[in-house]
Amino acid sequence: MLTSRAKGGNATSLTSKPRGSRPRTSTQALPKVPNTEPVESAGKRRLLDAATIEFAERGFDGASVLAIARRAGVKQPLLNYHFGGKEGLWRAVIEEGYRDTVQLERALEGAAVPADPLERVKQLLRSFAMINLRRPSVHAIMQKEVMFASPRLDWLVDNYMKQFNQRLSILIEECIEEGIFRPFPVEQLCVMLTGVLVSYFLASELPERMYGRNLKDDDFAWDYFNNAIDTLFNGMLTRPEKKTVKSKRPTR
Question: Which pTM was predicted?
């Protein structure tokens, strides 16, 4: 599950209500993320691309540095030179996967934050979904670590997952305090909300075979995210929500 990494102590930036800011409605798209990928050597670039595929398909334990080097078309010592070994390469793949996450973070911080805490929860969940959609291979790598409680899971939690879940928890608590959500345990709601969105990526191959629908299509994915959020929220709200216009899919 890709989640946003906090920078400069901004772990609650989406939970605040800046004075005088105009609410950002659900019909607005998330900011477009600029491409800020640094220039790298050709060999290093090929190693990162090859490792992303190998780790996504085989997991950390199943992927070998020899197979990664062969896929990249380079000698194995080059891998050690750039990354220090297999775990260093794995971390580099994850960190690169979060590069556009950080840019999205900064773009959201510069946008008007909705005054309604319910809309802020929706905004955060949509950004969570789109970040995962933009980096499906990195999501697959992280999912393997989460499923099997690997030694790398603590590093993922401390560096990437914890900050997002703290934000989401704060917003959910605010919705409960204001009587918007029913008083379910906050940690259960966090797992429930993110779990339903993550299920899109886990089952993306099945609907095409069962219903002839391609879940990998961006428009279909965005529609799924909106419907999933609305369906869950209608079961959590203390009162029926007014009919809202679905938000538009962000432009890549």
Answer: 0.68
